[in-house]
Amino acid sequence: MADGAGSAEAKGAVANEPEKKKSPWLDAWYDPVAGMSCYSSFLCLSDLAADGDHRLVMVDMKKRIRMYKGTTIQWEHKLPDVPCAVQSFYHEAGHPPIPTLAVASGHRVLIFRNMRPSMQYRLPPLEIDPVERDIWKDLTQDGADIQAGFDRLNAARENGTALSNQSIDFLAVEDLESQTEYVRACRPNEDHLLQQQTAITCMEVLKQNMDEQTAVSMLVIGTENRMIYILNSSALEIAAKVKLEAVPTFISVLGLFDVEYRITVACRDGNIYTVKNGQVLSNVIELETQPVGLVRFDKNVYVGCMDNVIHCFHFKGKKNHSIYLPCPISCMSLLQITKSRVAKALVVALQNGEVRLYNGKHLIATVETNDVVTGIKLGTFGREEGSMVLSFKSGALMVKILQRNANLDGTSVTVGPPPEQDIPLDVPKKTKLYVEQTSREREQAIDMHRTFQRDLCKLRLSTARAYVNLLGTGHGPMSTAAGAQVRINAQVLGMGPQFKILVRIQNAGATALYDVPVHCTTNQNLYRIPRPSFFLPVLVPQQVYLVEVPLTCVNENGGTAAVRIFLASARGTVPLISAIVQMPISEPAIIDSF
């Protein structure tokens, strides 16, 4: 009977607590020793074998590309350079359509087909300034003046000329002999003397003429020289290119290349630009801080910023709302389900280990993790459409699957006042004393207000007088004299009977003080100070001075007393400031104990 009653009470207590929202995510797989820490652009989900089983493709900073089929590693390959993005696209309409894997690395796009390296596309080199080209043409001649060429290159750099890496390396050489060797080493490559390559910063995929999953696609590439390149479906030629005002960092595409398309670009200058059919539109979104993530949600653009805020803009530039987060944003991605049902949601990973699911500005669910999420990818993994792949800072890998009956409708989230607001407060009944006090306040409101203001003024006056007296006697934390503000702080070092008082003195004003006397007083029966008075020659503004005051306890019983330190003025008798040091109980001398 007792157990039954206890169980009933426990159930009642649980029922009274607010019900915890069930997570819509199911744990599918976790590999703590995967050993690949990836950003969001380093992850890709694609049906690379055209068998309906979507693989996970990962690249990392260790120049590796790895493919997972289910929970096993199916393929791994070494890359020639550090990658910055990986994407899959369909270069032709085959039967069955087999996607192509593209890895952006340096100034090249590496193409993999059927899990084998197929080809690579190199971005066009940058145009070299004619001034720099003429200087190097003179340097490669026999009998050229190396020092004169060095000075000309240095002057060109100071005038704002963008130099190539070869010229920058040459200017880093200091002695003339090494400069001569550097120029001699460059002469055999006279035909390819000055070639400046750019670097890819981001990459996306744009459908060409059909809005289908297996339609022919094109690569959209952002580079360090502030360019957007659109490659054709074979990734061999540039179909279109656009010049931006800043270096792109995040790209989001929408539409078809042959019909109409929009490219939303977040750049390093803190602005968001829109490219429509190869033209940069005039409506520019200016952010308060640097962007850390960009996601397009229908006609809205969600931008995560470094100030822990996600801003939602209409694609024409109008701001809709903002979502304020408790900690910095790690990465963002879009959850999109189209087969079983139509649903979209925004997934945001925070640096405290939380992964949040938003529909609009409504928070739907939160997933807690034990590590910092560095990369997130949503799509179809295996045969499950609503899969979420998480890559952690420690190199771990986690896969979660969205429940098929999960409710992603943001309108179902409770908005407005909390339900506790409808519960009436337990207000006590009005007593006779309460009624008398309220009636007195109504009748004598003016007199009570005047009395209160008079007492408040008296209190302020008394406080000001006490503070002035405190500063006048030098007892305050800071004193002002001759336009200078002085601070003092003291610290006791030692266990006894030998002590040392470390005094820190700072002139916080704008005027220097000269010949400042310092006096130390204490109980002569307890302590002996060898030099109780001394002078400080000068106190420079904003400079902290350390003064050591030795002190010896002469009382065998080890008593304690206070030591007072005064900073006086060279011309006045009132101390500028003082500090009281409470001494600890002195330990007996170790030598005397033997």
What does this structure look like?
This protein is α+β, with helices and mostly antiparallel strands and 594 residues long. It folds into 3 domains: 21-125 and 198-404, YVTN repeat-like/Quinoprotein amine dehydrogenase (Methylamine Dehydrogenase, Chain H); 130-189, no CATH class; 478-593, Immunoglobulins (Immunoglobulin-like, Sandwich), CATH 2.60.40.10. It is 16% helix and 42% strand. It is built from 7 helices and 38 strands. Strands 14, 15, 16, 17 and 18 form a 5-stranded antiparallel sheet that branches. It has a 5-stranded antiparallel sheet with strand order 30-31-32-36-34, with no helix packed on it. The protein has a 4-stranded antiparallel sheet with strand order 1-29-28-27, with no helix packed on it. Helix 2 (130-139) packs antiparallel against helix 3. Residues 1-20 and 477-483 have low confidence and may be disordered.
Domain count: 3
How large a portion of the residues is in β-strands, by DSSP E?
35-45%
CATH superfamily of the largest domain: YVTN repeat-like/Quinoprotein amine dehydrogenase
CATH topology term of the largest domain: Methylamine Dehydrogenase, Chain H
Low-confidence regions: 1-20, 477-483
Determine the fraction of residues in helical runs and give it as a percent range: 10-25%
- Quote the average pLDDT: 85
Most strands sheet: 5 strands, antiparallel
CATH class of the largest domain: Mainly Beta
Radius of gyration: 37 Å
- The coarse overall form would be extended
- At CATH level 2, the architecture of the largest domain is 7 Propeller
